[in-house]
Amino acid sequence: MELKNEVRDALFEFLLRLGDDRLILGHRLSEWCGHAHSLEEDIALTNVSLDFVGQASALLSLAGEVENKNRNEDDLAYFREAMEFKNVQLVEQPNIDFAYTMVRQFLFDSFNLLLNKNLVESKFEDLAGIAAKTIKESTYHNRHSNQWLLRLGDGTEESHNRTQKAIDDLWIFTADLFYEDEIDELLISEGISFSTKAIKDEWENKTKEIIEKATLTTPETKLFDRGSRKGIHTEHLGHLLAEMQIVPRSFPDAKW
After folding, report:
1. Domain 5-250: which CATH class?
2. Are the C-beta atoms of residues 170 and 149 closer than 8 Å to each other?
3. Residues whose CB is less than 8 angstroms from the CB of residue 143 and which lie 6 or more positions away in sequence, other chains included
4. First-to-final CA distance of the chain
5. 233 phi-psi bin (left φ>0, alpha ψ -120 to 50, beta other)
6. Could you report the per-residue pLDDT of 91-111, keeping only the tens digit for each?
7. Residue 207: how many CA atoms within 13 Å on its side-chain side?
8. Which of 7, 42, 127, 237 could serve as 36's disulfide partner, Cβ 3.0–4.6 Å?
9. Is residue 79 a contact partner of residue 248, using CB atoms and an 8 Å limit?
10. What is the pLDDT of residues 223-249, one digit of tens each?
C-alpha cells in the first residue's frame, strides 16, 4: 500500500500506540513470574506476558519500518523517554494484588479482542496480518481474565472486596481505550483503522455483563480522556521504564 507522507506519520503514531499498550502490559505481567499463587497461574501469566511482548515486537518493528529512520523495535522500546510512550494509563498501573492484575487484564482484554477483530479488515496488509495472528491469543486472554473475574468476584468475601476495589480504582482509566483524534480520523478515512466508538457499546455491555455475573458493581464514575495518547502518564510508568530499560541503556553497544 502506497502511503502519503501525512498518512505515514499518522500510521507510525498509531502503531506506537498499539505497540506501547502491549509492551507495557507485557512487562507488568512479567512481574508475576515466580510470584503467582499457584504454579499453573504463574506459567499462565508468564505466557500471556510473552504473548503481549511478542505482539509489541511485531507492531514496533512495523512502526520502525513505516517511520524509515533506521529505528527498530529495540530502539523504540528501550531508548524513548516516558513522555514519548503512547500507551493508555490503564496498562501501566501496578500489580497491587492479584485482583488488580486480573481486573486490569479483564478491562483491556475485552477491548483488545474487539480491536483485533476489526483491524483484520485494515487496508494496510501488514497491520491486518498482525491482527489476524493475534486474534487466537486475544481470545484466550479474554477467556482467561473473564473466568478469573467470575471466580474472584463470586468467591470469598475477601476476594470479592478486593476485586470490587480494583474495579472501582481502574474503571476511570478505560476512557482512553476509545480516545480518537486527528490521527485516527485520517487513518479511518484511508481504511487503515476504524472508529473505536463503534465497539464501545459492545465493550461496555460485555464487561458489565461479566461484572454483574461476578456479583460485582460497575462504578458510576464519570469517564474522561486522561491524555495518555499524547504522552501524559502516571508516575508508575517512569519506574517501570527505569527497570525495563536499564540493561540496554547501560550497555547500548552490547551484542547478544
Report:
1. mainly alpha
2. no
3. none
4. 34
5. beta
6. 999 999 999 999 999 999 999
7. 24
8. 42
9. yes
10. 888 999 999 999 999 999 999 999 999
